């Protein structure tokens, strides 16, 4: 993605962290946990199914 927008990887990470307050990896984990919580609470899926759907 950094190459697509003409930016170095470290610069992209720094800007991303400034905007979101977390690194790209932390943000991805946050999204996965949020989706796992939604699946388990709203769709009532079990832990194994949820893990497979969100990528463990």
Strand content: under 5%
Helix content: 55-70%
Major sheet description: none
Q: Report the average pLDDT across residues.
A: 94
| Rg over C-alpha atoms, rounded to the nearest angstrom | 15 Å
* Shape, per Cα inertia axes: elongated
Q: What is the first-to-last residue Cα distance? A: 23 Å
Tally of helical segments: 3
H and E order: HHH
Instruction: Determine the oligomeric state from the structure.
Output: single chain
Strand tally, please? 0
Task: Show unreliable segments.
Answer: none
Structural class, please? mainly alpha
Domain HTH araC/xylS-type: 1-56
InterPro entries: Homeodomain-like_sf, HTH_AraC
Protein name: Helix-turn-helix transcriptional regulator
Keywords: Transcription, Transcription regulation
Could you list some keywords that capture this structure?
single chain, 56 residues, mainly alpha, 3 helices, elongated, transcription regulation, HTH_AraC
Provide a quick synopsis of the model.
The chain is mostly helical. The protein has helices spanning 9-20, 24-41, 47-54.
Explain what you see.
By secondary structure, the chain is mainly alpha-helical. The chain has a domain at 24-56. It is built from three helices and no strands. It is elongated and about 40 Å long. The protein starts with 8 loop residues before the first helix and ends with a helix. This is Helix-turn-helix transcriptional regulator. It holds the Pfam family HTH_18. Keywords: Transcription, Transcription regulation. InterPro entries: Homeodomain-like_sf (IPR009057), HTH_AraC (IPR018060). Residues 1-56 form the HTH araC/xylS-type domain.
């Amino acid at each position: 993605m950094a190459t697509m927008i003409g930016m170095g990887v470290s610069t992209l990470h720094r800007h991303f962290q400034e905007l979101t307050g977390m690194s790209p990896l932390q943000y991805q984990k946050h999204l996965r946990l949020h989706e796992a919580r939604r699946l388990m609470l709203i769709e009532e899926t079990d832990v194994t199914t949820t893990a497979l759907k969100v990528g463990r």
